[in-house]
Design a protein that fits this description.
With 104 residues, this protein is α+β, with helices and mostly antiparallel strands. Helices cover 44% and strands 20% of the residues. Strands 1-2-3-4 form a four-stranded mixed β-sheet.
């Protein structure tokens, strides 16, 4: 990793900033990263990402340094058990890694 990439990896990024960026970047890929409200079932990830070819991902967005709650981890594991991909995005690097993954 070069110096600039290392600095970027360590930098604290707010949930709000990451949410804004994921919306823009997923749109560029021809999909949507929708805010996922589920009033009757707590712990669902913040965003449902819908991409061409029926690809669906869930993303929990966190400010760098914050971790999913026990309830969120429980729901993430339940979704994974159903075969869905759930990612926790808590840094600019984590977002870049996720975007690179869904581009391929
Ligand atoms: Mg969140």
């Amino acid at each position: 990793m070069n110096k600039k990439a290392a600095e970027k990896a360590l930098k604290k990024t707010s949930e709000k900033t990451l949410e804004r960026k994921i919306v823009v970047e997923v749109k560029r890929l021809g999909g949507k990263a929708l805010k996922f409200y589920c009033l009757s079932f707590t712990g669902m990830p913040d965003r449902i990402i819908l991409l061409p070819d029926a690809r669906v991902f869930f993303a929990e967005i966190k400010t760098t340094g914050k971790k999913p709650s026990p309830r969120q981890r429980f729901v993430h594991n339940w979704l994974r058990g159903l075969g869905f991909v759930v990612v926790v995005i808590d840094s600019a690097k984590a977002l870049d890694d996720f975007l690179n993954e869904i581009k391929n």
